[in-house]
Specification:
Radius of gyration: 23 Å
Mean pLDDT: 82
Length: 374
């Protein structure tokens, strides 16, 4: 018996002595490109292609003897299912480089999707810049840089500027109450920031890990390098400049993007709320679309076409009642159609980011996500 106890003790001591990876770190994978960034022990931000970032609050359970931890979290805003991350302390290859990362990640999403990848240490500590503003923080008036979607027009460096000029979708950034959301020309980005007068202090950015053609990656590398640390900002005539404190020339120059529009576009649905606290993809072989024009929303519900009146004021949106044609399709297609049309009628707010439409209902749950059909 003593030998077994001693052996178990050795195993436990060895496991406990294994180097633990502490926040901030980011887990990521390919096909699809995704990331789950842990800014603190109890917050994680999920990024998926063509989907809005989702912040989760949760807790971690450690299985030290196995060198594994399990992190479970719920959406910080609105309703929705849990995300569960299984993190194993073992060497991990990302399949894209020769680097070995310290954690293997397996992530289960609320809609049933399952992601596999690696985790790496964040590029710079972010503990002194909270990923989520403290709930007790006193409210402040928005700074001049907060609110608009800023589109990059100038990037320091001749090669960088030449590459930027050739991009169909240049980098963008939005500052909103301590949260930064952006697009670097290839990948989505998230981060945090604080403002003191005309100075903005930016944390290291986390983002998806998709690879793009060289000109795009040139811009991505330069943009992410410039958009970190302490910067002075000025806003005038619809233009924002960000300048290093020790520099005289701006590192980045942006222009305010035109207000987003929902009308005049055919939106192809990439996910819809099935009424059971999950956003799911359309069934294979079916296409769901929505189009807004002249006070009516029309589209394809997978089997039947539909029409409904709508009203909107700024980001508020009301849809319904919905009327559809009477064609009968397979049972699962008809079930999808019922859930999809019910979801549309629950819409209360809308947002457009680049070519993506996001509809939400009053409790914060996503109604649907859709991509503009080219």
């Amino acid at each position: 018996m003593s030998k077994w106890v001693a052996a178990i003790g050795v195993v436990l001591v060895t496991a406990l002595a294994a180097p633990a990876v502490e926040p901030p770190f980011v887990c990521f994978g390919n096909e699809p490109s995704w990331s789950l960034a842990f800014d603190t022990r109890d917050t994680a931000r999920l990024l998926l292609p063509d989907e809005a970032p989702v912040l989760y609050r949760g807790t971690e359970t450690r299985l030290d003897a196995l060198g594994e931890r399990v992190w479970r979290g719920r959406p910080a805003e609105g309703a929705g299912g849990d995300v569960v991350a299984f993190l194993l302390e073992a060497p991990c290859s990302d399949g894209m480089s020769d680097l070995q990362h310290p954690l293997v990640a397996r992530v289960s999403l609320p809609d049933g999707r399952y992601l596999v990848g690696c985790c790496r240490i964040a590029e710079a500590p972010a503990a002194d810049v909270p990923a989520v503003p403290a709930p007790t923080a006193a409210p402040r008036a928005p700074a001049a840089i907060e609110g608009p979607l800023w589109r990059l027009t100038r990037l320091a460096g001749e090669e960088n500027q030449t590459a930027l000029a050739g991009l169909a979708n240049p980098p963008t950034v939005r500052f909103d109450a301590g949260h930064l959301q952006g697009f670097d020309g290839c990948n989505q980005l998230v981060g945090s920031y604080t403002i003191d007068g005309d100075r903005v202090d930016l944390s290291a950015l986390a983002g998806t890990m998709m690879a793009c053609p060289r000109p795009v990656m040139v811009v991505e590398t330069a943009f992410k390098k410039a958009l970190t640390g302490a910067l002075r900002f000025t806003v005038a005539d619809g233009q924002m400049t960000l300048t290093r404190e020790s520099a005289t020339e701006p590192a980045l120059v942006f222009e305010a993007a035109p207000p987003p529009r929902i009308e005049g576009v055919t939106w192809k649905v990439t996910g819809y709320n099935n009424g059971r606290q999950a956003v799911v993809s359309p069934l294979i072989g079916t296409t769901l679309t929505v189009s807004f024009a002249d006070g009516s929303v029309t589209g394809n519900a997978g089997c039947n076409t539909f029409r409904a009146p709508y009203t909107r004021e700024e980001n508020r949106l009301t849809i319904g009642p919905v009327a559809a044609t009477r064609k009968v399709c397979k049972k699962n297609v008809m079930e999808q159609e019922r859930e999809f049309l019910a979801a549309i009628e629950s819409t209360t707010t809308w947002a457009v980011d680049r070519n993506m439409l996001d509809l939400h209902r009053a409790d914060g749950e996503r109604v649907l996500s859709a991509k503009s059909a080219k």
